[in-house]
Specification:
With 151 residues, the chain is mostly helical. It has one domain (2-141). The chain has 6 helices and 2 strands. β1 and β2 (57-58) form a beta hairpin. The radius of gyration is 18 Å and the shape is flat. The relative contact order is 0.17.
Length: 151
Amino acid sequence: MTHVLARRWRWMAALLLSIGLLPWMLALLGATTEWWRPAFAIFCHQLPDRSLSFHGHDMLVCSRCAGIFAGLSLGALLPLSRSLRHHGRALVIGAIALNLVQAASQLALPYWHTPRLLCGLAFGWAATAFFIASLRAEAEPVGAIAFVNQG
């Protein structure tokens, strides 16, 4: 059973890495056609003035969602360590709060892509890093932690 769970978290990490890179790769390749737009409209408002642009092509998602997608990839590559996993919920809640504060500040201040991108990145990484770390913890043998601590 442990081998199945071990493969599951690795496959999930690979899937999230791929999904996170998709809007970035499409923008860099200039493949932001109308065919892709409805697929990303499920997740994002896609307002052109809030979207990053590469070589004259707008991304299929806004700058905050671009950060979230990048965070998916980053979290898949850098999941929380065993010692930090118990702080995962707090990290996710903190990232949500950061995004809410940044979104509220846009009501009074002009918005820039950089804070939106970084706040999205923080949330995407925190959520994915916690998720992958939790899947990885399920795959560990029950006595593995006790065995490591006895040495």
